[in-house]
UniProtKB/TrEMBL annotation:
<dbReference type="InterPro" id="IPR001647">
    <property type="entry name" value="HTH_TetR"/>
</dbReference>
<feature type="region of interest" description="Disordered">
    <location>
        <begin position="1"/>
        <end position="22"/>
    </location>
</feature>
<protein>
    <submittedName>
        <fullName>TetR/AcrR family transcriptional regulator</fullName>
    </submittedName>
</protein>
<dbReference type="InterPro" id="IPR050109">
    <property type="entry name" value="HTH-type_TetR-like_transc_reg"/>
</dbReference>
<feature type="DNA-binding region" description="H-T-H motif">
    <location>
        <begin position="48"/>
        <end position="67"/>
    </location>
</feature>
<dbReference type="InterPro" id="IPR009057">
    <property type="entry name" value="Homeodomain-like_sf"/>
</dbReference>
<dbReference type="Pfam" id="PF00440">
    <property type="entry name" value="TetR_N"/>
</dbReference>
<keyword id="KW-0238">DNA-binding</keyword>
<feature type="domain" description="HTH tetR-type">
    <location>
        <begin position="25"/>
        <end position="85"/>
    </location>
</feature>
Amino acid sequence: MPEREGNRKPFQLTGSGSPERADAARNRAKILAAAASVYAERGVDGLALDQVAAVAGVGVGTVYRRFADRGQLAQGLMDAHEQAFQASFMTGPPPLGPGAPAGDRLRAFLHAFVDRLSTQADLLVVAETATPTARYESGAYRLHHVHVVALLDELRPGADTHYLADALLAQVAAAQFVRQHRDEGLSVERIKSGLDDLLTALTRVP
């Protein structure tokens, strides 16, 4: 794993770029607090921007200026979880963090992703499917992809690791997890076992 990865700052899902004005930051915090309240009370299906605006006591236009759609709002709700996840695989203890062999780190990353999906799949589905390319345009996906590519480069020198990283990450898309776990009844353990088999096949040197 290149040392530069550990020094890279986590991507921000929302609120990245120039520092916000104090009033804009307050509005964003108020909106996210309201969104968390709406989500806790009504679930993901009730997470509508007009409802969030009403609970926050702001105009709908204020919400839309901060979050263009439900997907961005869902991303905002998951910012803290995403930052913690990033820290765990970039600077946390092995095998998920630096210090373990690349294969062990990649397996731990995929397993940790599945654990996260088991509690956050509803919000992740909204965040990833708001537009056809929403998942791939997020800072989170870009960082996940860079991380997986770096590990695959160690395991499969000379392979098309950019493509292989996309192939692996496709298996932990939120909609895929919901279909497998909720609709088809696959256990978390079975999904992890399947990922292990796939990882073994993808990283086997010809």
